[in-house]
Each structure stands twice: as structure tokens, then as C-alpha cells.
Structure prediction request, 204 residues.
Amino acid sequence: MALIVVDHPLARSLLTSLRDVSTPPPLFRLIAKRLALVLCIEATRTLPTSATEVDTPLATTSGTRLGPLVAVPILRAGLGMLEAVTELFPEVTVGYLGLERDHATFEPSMYYSKLPPLDGRSALLLDPMLATGGSAAAACSALDAAGVGHVTLLSVVAAPEGVARLAAAHPRVDIVTASVDEALNDHAYIVPGLGDFGDRLFGT
Prediction:
């Protein structure tokens, strides 16, 4: 497993704005999308490519193209990152996984799954908050069962506990995040974190 923390001034600035409790939902959504763009560019650095040739107005030249790509947001918070991926890759195929966490046990349960054909394809799993790692691990298991080739998890913020759990359960999964924060609190929220991403995204 590769853990990539995007150390870029733009990423740090955008994350700071997302952490700010005074950032209203409309601005939060815009900033989340911009940060997801930065994370997505980093995440695609290691994706498989194929060589090709194209005709320019002046000559034929060699180039590369990305292979088939699937984006899978974990509902509902992952939706805040999806538009960034579809803008960068208009031909991306999109699947959805609905997972909710039990507030007593902190363990996830799946309530929705709609996945496209994944045979050998690379997938970007979109989960803004890698907290306990339970939802991400369950999502990765669902993708594995569907025959995915490789999974890269995009998270805005991660907790050490979540990183460790995902590494143990799915050691082939790569993680791209803007920050690995201090720890989880007693309610399994990331500290300092940025609160409930979904609530802040949708104003609920």
C-alpha cells in the first residue's frame, strides 16, 4: 500500500478553508471540489497507460492514454468529490456504494450498491473522511468481489487508525489524502478534522 499525502501549497490552503467552521455550505462544496481535483491529479499519476500515436496538424507523434477508469463515491459524502473526477475524465464510468456507520459500534453496513463492470479496471474510491477505516474497507471488499483491478482511495483527511485498518485489510489499495491528522476521538471523529463532511457539504 502506498500512502500519499499531497504536500502542495494549494492543497494546504484549500484544506485550511474546509477545516474552518465558518465556511458555509456553498463555499464548502466549491472548495471540496477544487481539493478533489488536486487529489485526483495525484491519484492518477500511477494509473496504467497505453502508448498510442496521434496526428497533429503538422506530424504524427507518440503519446499515452489512460486505461478504463471507474469512480465510486461512498454515499453521501463522496458525492462532494465526484464532479472533480467527471470533469477531469468525462468518459469515466461511475458506480455508487451506500454505507452508513452504526453510532454505537462504529461499524458500517451497506444499504446500496450499484457498480458497473469492473473486470480488471482501475477504480478511484471517493471517501472524504478515512476515520475508522470500516467503510473504506467494506467498500474495497465490494470492489474486490466485483473483480476490480486496482483501487486508489481519495480522502480529504485521514486518521492513523483508518490508514492502519485499511492497510491491514487491503494492502494493495493506495491512499491519496491531503492530511493524516492526529487521531480519532471517543466518537470516532477525526481530530482536528473538519467535522461531518456530509453535513457540511449539504448543510444538514
Summary: The chain has one domain: 3-47+67-202. Helices lie at 9-19, 25-43, 79-88, 134-145, 160-169, 197-202. The longest helix spans residues 25-43. The chain has a mean pLDDT of 93.
